[in-house]
Amino acid sequence: MKIPFVDLKANYLSIKTEVDAAIMKVLDETAFIKGADLDIFEKNWALMSGAEYCVGISNGTTSLELILKALGVGNGDEVILPSHTFIATAEAVVNCGAKPVFVDSHDHTTLIDANEVEKAITAKTKAVIIVDLYGQPADYDAVKTAVGDRNIEIIQDAAQSHLALYKNKVTGSYSRVTSFSFYPGKNMGAYGDAGAVVTNDKELYTKIKMMSDHGRITKYEHQISGTNARMDNLQAAVLNVKMKYVSEWNEKRRTVAARYKNALENYLSFVEEEPFVKSVYHLLVVRTLFRKDMIKFLGEHGIATGIHYPIPLHLQPAYKHLGYSYGDLPRCERIAEEIISLPVFPEMTDAQIDFVVQTVKEYVK
Cβ–Cβ contacts within 10 Å for residue 292, how many? Predict the structure, then answer.
């Protein structure tokens, strides 16, 4: 049996009639930029995220960059973020002219450690980016306590936590500003690149909205110097269809994750889910001291796996100039050496889950 890491074809087929019609409507109307579908997306995603405002953006990396720039982050500033995450979070900081300051993660969740955030704060710290990994929200309140009454912004990177819950609050509803990615493999993925910013701050929303569309308020009246970072109408149309199903898909992901955990709790160590969150399991991540051999064994049996992520950002060649070395952030270094992502997607069948479970058991034995 062949088990893909994620099955985008199965997902497409489950909504084919609706999504094909939505795409054809855009083509028939030739409404490719700033169309009605984008307006609908922004209204509905704000509502689902518990926020007042939403701006559709071209991708999640750019949405983070626009947030930072709108908050005044620039040359000479420092932004604290976890080293254990995808490089896009750090790229947004660098693209603003600021310096990324990497901190360690909790060993049990792999999420940013607020105690390490507090230690890293300096007079130059302008913001902290908390990253929700694998579907689980980072501990916002702990980071807020660490920041205290300092004039430091907390930005939430929720690229992997669409509609996850943190203390019964949906992602997007409790941070001042939140960034989303809708990369195709995400829980609610576009058919290309797409992202969004949500916020309850009208002034911040207005600024980011203008920045994403050449700084204008009318077609040829430009209040500020912006860029072209709009979500196109075709992606909005696709996401509007998927938005109706993402909650159901998230529950199916949780069901798959629960089956894995129940069957393999005595065989593997799972990244833990905090009791005050409800993860949407964008990824199902386990840890082993024998990763290379396990990946090889599963691959030989037709099971695709992933590593999210094998090299912490502070050890990436791109950031060598910052002066970090191995041993500086030991927990995320250990995490990066041990983690494996197993297949998890809403369309996964019982037979597929059972096959992965039995193959893992066979390997461990």
Answer: 9
Q: Is this model's pTM higher than 0.90 or not?
A: yes
Would you list the domain boundaries of the chain? Answer: 8-103+112-243, 246-364
d(CA 299, CA 91): 32
The C-alpha atoms of residue 185 and residue 343 are separated, in whole angstroms, by 12
Question: What class does CATH assign to 8-103+112-243?
Answer: alpha beta
Residues 6+ apart with CB under 8 A from 350: none
- Count of other CB atoms within 10 angstroms of residue 231: 28
Spatial distance between the Cα atoms of 156 and 244, rounded to a whole number of angstroms: 24
Dist. CA 317–CA 76, nearest whole Å:
22
Task: Write out the E strands in the chain.
Answer: 53-57, 78-82, 99-103, 125-131, 153-157, 165-166, 169-170, 177-181, 195-199, 216-218, 221-222, 269-270, 277-278, 284-287, 339-342
Residues 246-364, CATH architecture: Alpha-Beta Complex (3.90)
Task: Tell me if domain 8-103+112-243 and domain 246-364 are identical in fold.
Answer: no
- Tokens at residue 215, please? 């700084």
Longest CA–CA separation in the chain, Å:
68
- CA–CA distances in Å: residue 216 to residues 83, 95, 223, 232: 36, 22, 6, 17
Per residue of the chain (365 residues), give pLDDT as tens.
999 999 999 999 999 999 999 999 999 999 999 999 999 999 999 999 999 999 999 999 999 999 999 999 999 999 999 999 999 999 999 999 999 999 999 999 999 999 999 999 999 999 999 999 999 999 999 999 999 999 999 999 999 999 999 999 999 999 999 999 999 999 999 999 999 999 999 999 999 999 999 999 888 999 999 999 999 999 999 999 999 999 999 999 999 999 999 999 999 999 999 999 999 999 999 999 999 999 999 999 999 999 999 999 999 999 999 999 999 999 999 999 999 999 999 999 999 999 999 999 999 98
Cα separation values, 321 from 221, 237, 268, 318, 325, Å: 41, 42, 37, 8, 11
